[in-house]
Known about the structure:
Blueprint: E1 4-7, E2 10-13, H1 21-49, H2 53-78, H3 83-106, H4 112-140, H5 146-175, H6 179-196, H7 214-227, H8 229-259, H9 263-292, H10 294-314, H11 318-346, H12 352-364, H13 366-381, H14 385-401
Antiparallel strand pairs: 1-2
Amino acid sequence: MAAVEVVEGAVAQVPAWRGGFGRLWTAAVVSRFGDSLRGAALPLLAASLTSDPMLIALVTACGFLPWLLFGLLGGAIADRVDQRRAMWAVDLVRGALVAAFAVAVALGHASIALLIALAFALTSLQTLFDNAATALLPALVPQPALGRANARLMTGQQIAGGFLAAPLVPLLLVAGTAVPYAADAASYVLAAALVASLRAAAPERPARAPGSTLRGEIAEGLRTLWADRALRALCVATTLCNIGMGALIATLVLHITGWLHSGHGGYAAAITGYGAGSVAGGLLTQRLARRLGRMRSVLLAGAVQTGCLAAMGSVRELWVSIAAMAVFGLMGMVWNVNQVTLMQERSPEAMLGRTSAAFRTLAVAGAPLGAVAGGAAASSWGLNTPALLASGLFLAAVGALIPALTS
């Protein structure tokens, strides 16, 4: 008999590794490992090509922009197609793109323009992949096990990405500037093979009405999201947080290497601290959900993250930033697991791709703005100001969640 636990008065199952979940988990972990190698190496490459904070921030901004252009379309397509096939096909294309980029870096042809183009292309493909993945998980595990399944997925990804991959980047860069990108390309191919081996049945979808269009289906997803009070408040709060995250992520390498004068090793240590905290958060998430409920857990996470960002922007000590990033990562995991689980629990199954896409698109919309604002703040008022800006935005997000606590 499967183990069970109680979350907010309901019996929650522990997901079985068999039945496809184990392979999906492995694919997600392998892919995140490769992505984290690339994600940690890319800002360092950008910083070696230019010292202009605005140009470095622009790379991050263009990594979010496709969600504004294609996010809603990706969700509508995810509800129409075989999600498993969409995921492995996207991974193969992303693997080819990153492999080509690795060759360009190895030959000395890297440029800020090329970094921007790669970020834009990969995120454009991600709009379909992420929405398909969110909709596929309920086909692999029963609904009472979704919370645990999401926690295991995200914890495994953080172990591979933040805890294992990030510390390896300085060593891989010694072997060659193109090595992290080549490893990322290989991870996409392996993840595609694992997803292609899944035998998940597509969810039953009602027949589309005659004359139904993608535009109309996208609008239906937006209406479904906005009609749910809890998801609406969570979307507004996540948007505010993503503005802050855009500002922080775009300038974090400058915050650590410039304001704190801690070099690439300090940057790797901060990223590793974030990963370690996220792993701890994966273990804590369900306990908090049982005790507080999912929405109150998100509220607590946002409040603690606000304090972490304020400490990072105020105290000029590397150990403070590492500790703050660790706690920030822990509470970020609490936020993310409960957010995704609430989405999967409260959305109609046949519309999960569209509802998820509407949520993600609206939430991610603030990230490019935050990245540009963070670059401008760092240029005008100092490299620590993006963290302080993010702190204020997280505080506003906490306020936006309070009316939904009774939902």
